[in-house]
Recover the amino acids of this structure.
């Protein structure tokens, strides 16, 4: 071993890797297992193999192979979209009774408010489909496919502000640092297409509130999992994946040679230190090289026909919109990408809710319905789970003044609605009930961890077995809770 | 080469063999120890330490191998934990026993303890492999469950529905041997008689029946049954129990004698009428992992559905070619393959007959392949097939006779095929539970279609010499027409083909037009040719410190702000109007002033109420040349950017003074009415 301080330092940094590499003797095997590296190159979940395209076998036969998560960031109001409450119309303007609120904590935005005037939806509700599912007229397209959807009206969460709530939904913990749902799936199930990332992310801004809450890239971060499980963002515009294209003047052959050279240097490092992150790096370089061909293919929508645009709507013609992202999501799913996460921002409507909701609903309604319909006619919905929803709901009382045409709603974690379709979900049903005020859940509550457990179950994974040992503890997406919601499974 | 981890794995698996040694040897040592205390076997004494030693070594080895095996995973954590620590304790205790055998007066007691420990270790180990109820299963009463009885009405209510509940949840404490609360639930007479507090139920009155009360009390209540910590009744069981009591609550009748509502019917159906069907009913041996690995190394993609499933999925979708070798390899595991994905491959009519080698297919993907009726004809009926995807295949009504034979088919995908409506109807009649997805209904749902307006793209909205403008719409079937003179574009306007350059200030309007689509709305953008830039600018009011950009200069830097007012390109003032004086250094010809502003009402930002313009040669005497007033909104507007224009007769001036009037106070309708509103400006342009 070299004696210069730098390589010594490196060696110290890679102490764990070194120990795991030399863990041939029994004592070292036990030690390495204490240090978090499984001694059969396998963890309890079935693998930490470094090649993302390695086939990993789910715990049991899955109902869904892939997920498209249409995340509606900001907290869309369930009371204007799914959860119809006639009582609010009758009691409009009256104060929310304390017997209902029961001391629920409020955000700083309404805690100073003197009264809490109950606000009914100014949008009309109707039942749709054979299932008779309720939708407001903000969703003229989604309501047409009511019989394909399962609307869960009894979601609840623990966080009351955006960032902790989204982080909680995506990683199972309100504190940042845990792997995102897509990363867990990548870790547990591996990849079905070695030319594309297992976990792709598409972000769009809403027209309802264009200056709404920002998103942090750690929402699609890999946490303590290997970095090749992190989500890759596809952007609209000339450079869909940043830093992917060769610089001007570098041709394919030069790039290839360069990568081979780097790989051989990295290989030497692996032999010396055995740090798994080095192999990750090699794998990522190779993936990026293959993506130089596969990504332009995905983004090239010139082969889509006119019918596609009629379905997804004219917005699909404008890159970067939610509709265009829905179309891309379908194209990624067709290429066997495991988890496509869309984020549509701008659902945080503290004031001017009616106008903002109109804009937001207009952004997403047709495209969401089109995506589900398109997957269905291609036979993909059978194995693809589509999820639509935000991080929490909104209050049944108005934030600020309630007028005949205008009001706002504050954050509400105690109940909200999401919907799911496809991949082993029972179609044409509503699950769970809230009280007549739309404030508390009275039937079949679904905690965020329950939702996550159900999602993993649909993908063939036992949420209690999909673990990763880190800093002496086995971590799960569902932390220490979560039960599968059997009633919504097909 | 054999990896060290593989060696460890090998030893781990040896655990299942080696574990028998300590059980046998330590037990033998114990028997010899006991026997040696009798005169007949006294001569055994000297060999006992040796046998104990061998037993100790075996116990230690077994514990180590067991630990290695547990690292492989896949075991139930709780019971594994018990087994692991019991095993380690056995190893330690046998070691202690061996080394301290001469000293302890408790030798025999410890030895007995070791044997007890050994038995428990063995038992937990057995439970891991065979299931926790394996050993005692023969003694358990057989419960008739999950067996199809033909007709729900024939189910015997008490013996088949109610008694099993008592047996699984109650009788462990309420039996003749252990009579908690004086209640015995093992026979019908005692059940009727009830316990110390009275009869256990009153037929027809569930609410007054102690049984029902007990299960509905809060979990914390001492009278709640089964007690906290014991296995509780499921919701289904609670409902059944209540249903039985609200009926006759007797012991011999069948379901037909009880009133059955939909809820109970659903429970009964779920419990009894779940006949295994399709591939579930087929028993098949799994394929060795090594064989799969070998196949996959040869370019296939075959994997089990789940860790313990014998069924395989073969996914070849999206391949540019399918070789006969692929099929040959697949056929070696043909019986196990239940999902076969050949979608989007060059599969042709000749290849189709290869499919006949796979008898157990439940899902078959053939979409976007080259097969036609001619090839499809050669398929033999797949009786377990539930999913068949033929979308975008050249298949017509001629294939209906074949499809009709797929009796278990649940979903059939026929989008973009040439089936007639009648053909589809006849198919639906033949196969009762079939859903056919043709995609036809979707054209109605998504009938309304207006083109989106083209995007007008350029590097900047202001330029010195010339500017390249691109019109863009991601929709190859539309034509884009545009005008440069501010007139409304239509199909007789300029047709856009390639990016073009503009040299002077121009307003571009563009429209997208396509057959069978409603024409788009008109998009519009104005680009400013800046011939002369002002040398400097002075403003009478200092902008708010949070929005001060690069100072007053920001308003003439030819750099526009975005809709994000925090982007540093905006200057802002709260509640105040501002006056700016632009200095061109020497007199220039001027004819209009544009003030670029932002409107975003939620955070109190409003467009200006008006602008006034003066010109001057000497910065002392200013001549008013233009004054424009704009509307104050009557309701909240969608956030936007706009350039407000004040034009006047062309005149020569070196100094231009511009007054931009702030709305000053949020309008009455605003949630924060009367509060000082914001004025946001990013540029003042002089033409």
């Amino acid at each position: 071993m070299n004696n210069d301080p730098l390589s010594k330092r490196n060696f110290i940094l890679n102490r764990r890797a070194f120990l795991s590499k030399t863990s041939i003797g029994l004592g070292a095997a036990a030690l390495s297992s204490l240090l978090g590296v499984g001694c059969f190159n396998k963890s309890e979940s079935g693998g930490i193999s470094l090649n993302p395209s390695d086939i990993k076998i789910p715990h049991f036969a899955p109902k869904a192979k892939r997920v498209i998560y249409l995340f509606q960031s900001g907290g869309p109001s369930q009371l204007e979209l799914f959860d119809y409450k006639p009582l609010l119309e009758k009691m409009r303007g009256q104060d929310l009774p304390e017997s209902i609120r029961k001391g629920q904590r409020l955000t700083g935005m309404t805690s100073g408010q003197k009264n809490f005037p109950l606000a009914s939806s100014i949008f009309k509700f109707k039942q749709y489909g054979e299932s008779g599912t309720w939708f407001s007229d903000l969703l003229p397209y989604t309501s047409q496919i009511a019989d394909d959807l399962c609307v869960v009206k009894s979601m609840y969460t623990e966080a009351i502000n955006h960032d902790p709530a989204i982080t909680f939904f995506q990683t199972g913990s309100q504190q940042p640092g845990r792997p995102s749902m897509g990363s867990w799936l990548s870790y547990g199930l591996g990849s079905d297409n070695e030319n594309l990332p297992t976990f792709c992310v598409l972000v769009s801004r809403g027209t309802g509130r264009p200056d709404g809450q920002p998103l942090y890239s750690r929402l699609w971060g890999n946490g303590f999992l290997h970095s090749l499980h992190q989500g890759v963002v596809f952007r609209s515009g000339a450079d869909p994946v940043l830093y992917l294209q060769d610089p001007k003047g570098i041709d394919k052959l030069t790039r290839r040679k360069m990568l081979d050279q780097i790989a051989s240097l990295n290989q030497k490092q692996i032999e010396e230190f055995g740090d798994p992150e080095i192999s990750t790096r090699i794998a990522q370089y190779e993936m990026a090289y293959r993506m130089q061909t596969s990504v332009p293919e995905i983004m090239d929508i010139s082969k889509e026909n006119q019918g596609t645009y009629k379905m997804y709507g004219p917005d699909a013609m404008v890159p970067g919109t939610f509709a265009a992202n829905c179309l891309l999501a379908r194209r990624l799913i067709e290429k066997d990408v495991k988890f496509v996460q869309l984020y549509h921002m701008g659902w945080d409507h503290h004031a001017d809710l009616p106008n903002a909701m109109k804009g937001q609903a207009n952004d997403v309604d047709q495209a969401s319905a089109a995506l589900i319909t398109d997957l269905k006619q291609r036979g993909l919905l059978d194995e693809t789970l589509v999820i639509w929803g935000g991080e929490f709901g909104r209050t049944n009382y108005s934030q600020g003044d309630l007028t005949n045409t205008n009001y706002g709603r504050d954050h509400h974690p105690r109940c909200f609605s999401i919907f799911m379709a496809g991949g082993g979900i029972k179609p044409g049903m509503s699950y769970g009930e809230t009280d007549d005020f739309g404030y508390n859940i009275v039937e079949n509550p679904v905690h965020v961890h329950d939702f996550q457990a159900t999602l993993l179950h649909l993908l063939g994974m036992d949420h209690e077995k999909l673990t990763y040992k880190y800093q002496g503890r086995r971590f799960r997406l569902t932390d220490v809770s979560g039960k599968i919601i059997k009633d919504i499974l097909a | 080469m054999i990896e060290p981890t593989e060696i460890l794995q090998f030893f781990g698996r040896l655990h299942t063999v080696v574990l028998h040694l300590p059980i046998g040897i330590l037990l033998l040592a114990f028997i010899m120890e006991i026997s040696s205390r009798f005169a007949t076997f006294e001569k055994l004494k000297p060999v006992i330490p040796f046998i104990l030693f061998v037993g100790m070594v075996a116990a230690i080895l077994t514990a180590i191998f067991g630990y290695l095996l547990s690292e492989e995973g896949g075991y139930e954590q709780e019971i594994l934990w018990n087994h692991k620590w019991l095993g380690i304790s056995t190893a330690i205790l046998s070691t202690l026993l061996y080394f301290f055998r001469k000293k302890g007066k408790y030798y025999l007691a410890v030895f007995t303890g070791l044997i007890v420990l050994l038995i428990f270790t063995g038992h937990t180990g057995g439970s891991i492999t065979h299931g926790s109820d394996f050993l005692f299963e023969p003694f358990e009463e057989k419960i008739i469950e999950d067996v199809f009885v033909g007709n729900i009405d024939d189910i015997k209510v008490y013996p088949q529905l109610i008694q099993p509940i008592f047996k699984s949840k109650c009788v462990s404490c309420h039996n003749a041997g252990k009579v908690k609360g004086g209640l015995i639930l093992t026979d019908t007479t005692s059940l009727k008689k009830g316990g110390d507090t009275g009869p256990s139920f009153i037929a027809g009155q569930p609410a007054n029946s102690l049984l029902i009360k007990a299960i509905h009390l809060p979990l914390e209540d001492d009278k709640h049954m089964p007690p906290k910590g014991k296995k509780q009744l499921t919701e289904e069981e609670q409902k059944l129990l209540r249903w039985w009591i609200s009926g006759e609550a007797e012991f011999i009748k069948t379901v037909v004698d009880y009133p059955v509502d939909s809820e109970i019917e659903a429970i009964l159906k779920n419990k009894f009428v779940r006949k295994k069907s399709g591939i579930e009913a087929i028993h098949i041996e799994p394929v060795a992992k090594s064989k799969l690995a070998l196949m996959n190394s040869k370019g296939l993609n075959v994997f089990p559905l789940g860790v313990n499933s014998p069924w395989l999925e073969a996914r070849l979708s999206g391949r540019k070619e399918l070789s006969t070798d692929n099929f040959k390899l697949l056929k070696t595991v043909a019986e196990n393959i239940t999902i076969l994905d050949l979608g989007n491959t060059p599969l042709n009519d000749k290849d189709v007959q290869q499919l006949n080698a796979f008898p157990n297919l439940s899902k078959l993907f053939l979409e976007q392949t080259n097969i036609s009726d001619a090839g499809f004809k050669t398929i033999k009926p797949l009786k377990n097939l539930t999913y068949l995807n033929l979308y975008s295949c050249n298949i017509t009504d001629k294939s209906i006779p074949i499809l009709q034979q797929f009796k278990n088919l649940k979903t059939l995908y026929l989008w973009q095929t040439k089936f007639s409506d009648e053909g589809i109807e006849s198919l639906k009649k033949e196969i009762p539970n079939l859903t056919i997805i043709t995609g036809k209904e979707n054209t109605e749902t998504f009938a309304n279609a207006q083109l989106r307006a083209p995007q007008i793209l350029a590097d900047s909205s202001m330029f010195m010499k010339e500017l390249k403008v691109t019109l863009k719409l991601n929709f190859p079937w539309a034509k884009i027409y545009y005008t440069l003179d501010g007139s409304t574009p239509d199909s007789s306007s300029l047709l856009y083909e390639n990016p073009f350059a503009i040299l002077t200030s121009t307003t571009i309007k563009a429209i997208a037009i396509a057959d069978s689509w409603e024409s788009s709305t008109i998009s519009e953008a104005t680009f400013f040719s800046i011939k002369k830039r002002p040398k400097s600018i002075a403003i009478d009011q200092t902008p708010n410190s949070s929005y001060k950009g690069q100072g007053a200069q920001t308003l003439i830097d030819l750099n526009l702000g975005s809709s994000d007012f925090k982007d540093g390109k905006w200057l802002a003032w709260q509640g105040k109007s501002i006056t700016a004086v632009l200095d061109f250094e020497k007199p220039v010809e001027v004819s209009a002033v544009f003030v670029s502003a932002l409107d975003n009402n939620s955070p109190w930002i409003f467009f200006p109420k008006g602008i006034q313009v003066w010109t001057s040669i000497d910065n002392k005497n200013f001549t008013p040349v233009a004054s424009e007033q704009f509307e104050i909104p009557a309701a909240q507007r969608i956030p936007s950017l706009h350039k407000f224009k004040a034009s006047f007769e062309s005149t020569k001036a070196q100094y231009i003074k511009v007054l931009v009037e702030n709305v000053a106070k949020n309008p009455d309708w605003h949630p924060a009415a009367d509060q000082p509103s914001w004025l946001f400006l990013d540029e003042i342009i002089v033409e």
